[in-house]
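Workshop exercise sheet. Pairs work together: one partner reads the sequence aloud, the other fills in the structure field after running the prediction. Swap roles for the next sheet.
Pair: D.N. / O.F.
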Amino acid sequence: MEARGKEALWLQKKPEVLKALRELAIIQSAESSNRIEGITVEPRRLRPLLLQQAHPKERPEEELVGYRKALDWIHKEYKNIELQPKTILYLHKLIQGDLSGDSGKWKTKDNEIIELFPDGKRHIRFKALSAKETPKAIQELCLGYHHICEQKELPELLAIATCIFDFLCIHPFRDGNGRISRLLTLLLLYQHNFLIGRYISLERITEETKESYYKSLSLSSEGWHQGKHTLIPWWNYCLSTLKEAYIELSQRMDISESIGGKGTMVRQTILQQQTLFNLAELQALCPSVSIQLIKKILLQLKHKKKITLSGRGRGAKWKVK
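Structure field:
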């Protein structure tokens, strides 16, 4: 809640930094949210597709572009979008694209959440609500969320987390439930003035903490059909994700205010990276620095064996030792 209050101040002080972070967040969000579901595209095609410089050629690319379209719609229209069944169906139609026969339609067959083990064994982790019950359940979910928010029966962040959790348990679509849940999370956060998802990809953080995500979902879903489940594990996971995003944004803003010169700022930015990163991401973190200077410092740090490089061209990734 304290971090939310700083967003307006950051926007006034460093609008150029936040603008760069917005572009990076869109790319990371679309890539991570689809990759969590096993949807991937060639690295060289990723950026052109998400920056609308290329047209999709196959189903995974269509779904990646569809997620970008859904993000754009939420970013631009979130104040005018109401959580209701037709909104959820429209988001599904966007992310599935024209190549899917059931885009924008509720599931017609019952589905289960299956866990696959390395030895090939399958385990039913959760049996979702039946296809017959789904339309009514989604209607009740939307009405219940609005009622809880209007009556202030839960803090707003917990109301959002609970809504998303029940959506995942209903599992209303044959495919795309996870991606829709992450889009709905952004939408509801924006409507309560938590705009962090504009600048830091919540989907990327979810991908990086995927094990905790599935574990909390599994723990909280036990007894859901009987109304005997506990939301505490899921609440904790959602809050921790949001907190991590605000911490990351704060760190990036601090880096941008470095007074030791542009070279020092780039070095600090590089050495603070915890995961693999590429040149485009560094450019977004240091928007006031030329690409030539960034490349020069990367090579200097590589020569000093502070960082390592894997891959070539646009797919090249750097890692801090």
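Discussion prompt: The two ends are 34 Å apart (CA to CA). What would you look at next?
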